[in-house]
Amino acid sequence: MPALLALAVIWVVFQSLNANFLSPRNLSVLSVDIVGPGMVAVGVVFVLLIGEIDLSVGSLAGLSGALFATLNVNQGLPEWLAVLVAVAGCAGAGALHGFVFTGTGVPAFVVTLAGLLAWYGLMLYLLGPENTISFSGDGLVAMLTSHYFGAAVATYGLAALGTAAYLLVSLHDRGRRAAVGMPCRPVGEVWVRTALLAAVTFAAAHMLSRFEGLPLALLIFLLVVTATDLLLRRTTYGRQVIALGGGAEAALRAGVGVARVRISVFLMSGALAAIGGLFVASRLTSATPVTGSGMLLVNAIAAAVIGGTSLFGGRGSTWSALLGVLVIQSIASGMALLGVQTAVQFMITGGVLVIAVVFDSLARRAGVAAGRA
Fold it and tell me: Does pLDDT of 145 surpass 70?
C-alpha cells in the first residue's frame, strides 16, 4: 500500500507539472523502460526472500548482452542460439554463487561482490577495446523492445483476460478456504478488488492503444511476473523459498533442502538478470558497459524493496518488482520531462528507498511484537 500511494502521488505531481507525463506516448515509453530493470528486480526478489542479497546482477546483465553480441556478431551464431547461451551462462554464474555461498559459508554479500567485479571484467574483455558491439536493429533481440501489437483487441483482450483470471482465482481460493473453515475475504471485497483492477488495467489499455498498442516487452514482463508469482505462491518450491527466509534452522528441521533451495535461488537471479540485460541491450541495439553499470544493480534492488519485498527475508512477491520499478522509472521519466538534473533524481530515489526500508523495519518490529515474526 505505501508503494501504491507513492506511485499515485508521483503521477499526480508530475502530471500537474507537465501535462505530457500521462500522455499515451510517455506511458508507452515508460512501459518499455521498466522491463529491463524490472526483470533483474524479479530475480532479486527471489534472493531477498531467503534473507540474502545478490550484488552481481548488474554485472551479469551486462555480461549477458556482451555474450550475446560476441557470439552473434563476432562469431556468427544465430540470434536464438546466442540468446540461449547468454542466459544459460549467466544462470550458471548465479548457480556458482549459490554453490560457493552454501558450500563454504562465506556470506552471500562477499561472494556476489566478488562476482560483480569478476563478471564486469569479463564483460569488458568480451567487448574489446571499442567497449561496444552493435547488432542488427531488425533482429530477434532488437524486436524485444521495438515490436508492438497494434490491434486494439490485443491490448483490451489482455486487460480483460487478466481481470477475469484474477476474479476466478480469488473466488476459487475463497471457496477452498471457506470449505475448511479458514479465514477468507468477503465476496463483496473480492468484487471491489476486481473492479479496481479492471479500472486500472482498462485505463492502461486505453492509453497504450492510443499510441502504438501493446508493447511486446511489457507482455513478456507481465507473463514472467505472473509465472514467478505462481511459482512462489502455488508450488512446494515457492513455500520452501519463503520458509527459508523465515529461518534456515526451522526450514531445515521442517525438511527443506536448504542447500538446494539456496543454489536454485541464485541460479534464478542470474537467469533473470541475463534476460533483463538483453532487454536493456535491445533498447540500445548494442552491448555496452552501460548495461552492466552499478545503476542497474541499485535500481533493481531498490525496486524490489520499494515494492514491498522485505530485506529481512520471508515476505514479498514478484509483483513487488513491477510496482517498485514503476516508482523508480516514473521518477526518472518525470525528471527527464522537467529537465531536472540526474543528481536530483538520485536524491529523490534514495529518499523513497529510505522510506521503504523504514516501513519494512517497522512492519517487522510490529510482527515480532505480535509474535508473527
Answer: yes
Which residue in the block uniquely carries the three cell numbers 529537465? 339
Q: How many angstroms separate the CA atoms of 283 and 286, rounded?
A: 8
User: What is the Cα–Cα distance from 220 to 349, expressed in whole angstroms?
Assistant: 26
Just give the CATH number of 2-150+212-361. Answer: 1.10.3470
Nearest to 272 by CA among 88, 42, 7: 42
297, three cell numbers: 544493480
Contact by Cβ (8 Å): 265, 50: yes
Closest CA to 7 of 296, 312, 325, 233: 325
Work out whether strand 133-134 and strand 286-287 pair parallel, antiparallel, or are unpaired: antiparallel
Q: Give the domain ranges of the chain.
A: 2-150+212-361
pLDDT band for 367, please (50, 70, 90 cuts).
Answer: low
Q: Using CA atoms, how far apart are residues 81 and 94, in angstroms rounded to an integer? A: 20
CA separation for the pair 322, 1 (Å, rounded): 14
pTM given for the model: 0.90
Across 97-220, where does the E strand assignment appear? Answer: 133-134, 148-149, 214-215
Strands (E), the chain: 133-134, 148-149, 214-215, 286-287
Nearest-angstrom CA–CA distance, 34 and 327: 10
Residues 286-299: tens digit of each pLDDT:
888 877 677 888 88
* Cβ-based burial of 116 (10 A; exposed 0-12, middle 13-18, buried ≥19): buried
Count CB atoms within 10 A of the CB of residue 60: 37
Q: In this structure, how many other beta carbons lie within 10 angstroms of the beta carbon of residue 254?
A: 13
Q: How far is CA 112 from the centre of its chain?
A: 18
Q: Cβ–Cβ contacts within 10 Å for residue 257, how many?
A: 14
Cβ-based neighbours of 272, under 8 Å, separated by 6 or more: 39, 40, 42, 43, 46, 224
C-alpha cell belonging to residue 61: 546483465
